[in-house]
Design brief:
The structure is a single chain. This protein has 432 residues and is an alpha+beta fold. It contains 13 helices and 19 strands. It has helices spanning 29-42, 90-99, 115-120, 159-162, 194-207, 239-263, 268-278, 288-292, 312-324, 368-378, 395-398, 405-415, 424-430; strands at residues 8-11, 18-24, 46-49, 64-67, 74-78, 81-85, 102-103, 137-143, 149-153, 171-178, 180-181, 184-193, 210-215, 221-230, 282-287, 300-308, 334-339, 354-362, 384-385. The strands form four sheets. The protein has an eight-stranded antiparallel sheet, with helices on both faces. A five-stranded antiparallel sheet has the order 5-6-10-8-9. A four-stranded mixed sheet has the order 1-2-4-3, covered by helices on one side.
């Protein structure tokens, strides 16, 4: 495709992807359907874009960019089943659910994504009794390449493909979520030696609702985070402590530390060691989404790999050697989370208990050797890259990692035979 003459430039949150494309901004499902039908008839392509929180080129448009920010309204609340338009932000969803005494059973650590973007890329949180956010979906409405609105629920043969669809099957316009009564979480965070975390984590995972940890490169220190449901919100974090930890230290100070480390790489091990030593324990209660999600204002690039949970010790054991061998330094801690299995075809957690390993680099810092080294560790273990995080895999080597890969492609061939919704990224990971 040639660059549209009247195109507008778009950049993702991580500032590592950009494109120029003609912008479509439908205000209704009927408008989405008409735009898709017109594009299919004239041989044009559409790429739907959410809030731009994917680091891969999954949302890069080379012809027409469809924004769904006007499709951001609640549709219905029927007991625990909540239907919303797909362009709604997770932050707005959480606020709306709270008004109805409801909540998502699990969330990732940010709430800036759209509902459609989060489920389409298999965004996840942590907790062995949970899988990706897509596992909470009961039904979706999708505008397919023929310009028709198709509705799929859990009884539909297309459902396991349509939920985590990577934007390859059509434009997701409505999502029905199975929610739960609102609940309070007790958050407990404490610094520990990495060896102690690894020794205890297999015991903690089944005993607690949500477990994750962060390891600080060039140190033997980690931070353990455990969240559990409790009956009362009786230990609120003071406003000052919340600001100090989550805004000032985690964002303002960390941004400054990253800039120093970027300019003077030799001091990075000392900075990480000081950060790890400065960690303090805290324990507090709050509404579930306020515990799950935190502000993330320091920009970065990221790779995240899902691996079978049993393979985690092998990867964690090798990571210090990988990082020590890099031609640059790593400032961000390594994040590790855990989920249970689901049955959604392109979900990273399809059919198995998972450990997720996320690695980051500060905006503007080199990352490719680091990310490729992690991929080289995880791929032979059956690892699956997060669809919204940087990776270097192709359809040829992703097919063995996903038992239902060809089933997904068959649904794609039926719903979008002319590839109205493809782009270079989808051609790479699904095949042209």
């Amino acid at each position: 495709m040639t660059t549209p003459v009247n195109g507008r430039r778009w950049t993702n949150w991580g500032k590592n992807q950009e494109s120029v494309a003609e912008v479509l901004a439908p205000g209704s499902i009927d408008e989405v359907a008409a735009m898709v039908a017109a594009s299919a008839e004239t041989g044009r392509r559409i790429k739907t874009v959410g809030s731009g929180h994917s680091f891969t080129a999954i949302a890069v448009a080379d012809d027409q960019r469809m924004l769904l920010h006007r499709l951001n309204q609640p549709v219905s609340v029927a007991g625990p089943l909540v239907t919303v338009q797909a362009g709604m932000l997770l932050s707005d969803l959480n606020a709306m659910l709270a008004q109805h005494g409801l909540a998502m059973p699990n969330l990732g650590d940010i709430d800036a994504q759209t509902v459609a973007g989060a489920i389409s890329t298999a965004t996840h949180g942590t907790g062995i009794a949970h899988s990706t956010l897509a596992s909470c979906v009961e039904a979706v409405a999708l505008v397919t390449a023929n310009g028709k609105v198709e509705r799929y629920d859990r009884e539909s043969p297309e459902f396991p493909a349509a939920v985590v669809g990577l934007g390859a099957l059509g434009v997701l316009v409505e999502v029905t979520l199975r929610c739960v009564p609102e609940f309070t979480l007790l958050a407990e965070e404490r610094p520990l030696a990495l060896a102690d975390v690894l020794a205890g984590v297999e015991e903690w995972i089944p005993e607690n609702d949500h477990v994750e940890f962060f390891w600080y490169p060039y140190t033997d220190r980690a931070q353990l985070k455990i969240n559990n449901r409790v009956p009362a919100h009786d230990r609120p974090l003071s406003r000052f402590r919340g600001w100090l930890d989550d805004e000032f230290l985690s964002n303002t100070v960390f941004q400054g530390v990253c800039r120093i480390g970027q300019k003077f790489p030799g001091v990075v091990p000392a900075l990480n060691s000081a950060a790890a030593r400065a960690l303090s324990a805290r324990s507090y209660t709050d509404r579930s989404d306020r515990v799950f999600c935190s502000p993330r204002r320091v920009r970065f690039t990221e790779m995240e790999y899902e691996i079978p949970r049993a393979a985690l010790p092998e990867v964690i054991d090798a990571l210090p050697r990988v990082i020590d061998a890099l031609p640059f330094k790593v400032l961000f801690p390594v994040e590790v989370r855990f989920t249970g299995p689901d049955d959604i075809w392109l979900s990273h957690g399809y059919g198995r208990e998972s450990a997720y390993i996320a690695v980051h680099q500060f905006l503007g810092s080199p990352y490719e050797p680091y990310f490729k080294a992690l991929e080289a560790l995880c791929e032979p273990l059956g690892g699956r890259p997060h669809w919204g995080k940087l990776h270097y895999r192709t359809a040829a080597d992703l097919r063995p990692a996903y038992p239902k890969f060809d089933d997904f492609l068959a649904v794609r061939d039926r719903l979008d035979p002319a590839r109205v919704f493809t782009n270079d990224y989808l051609d790479r990971v699904l095949g042209a």
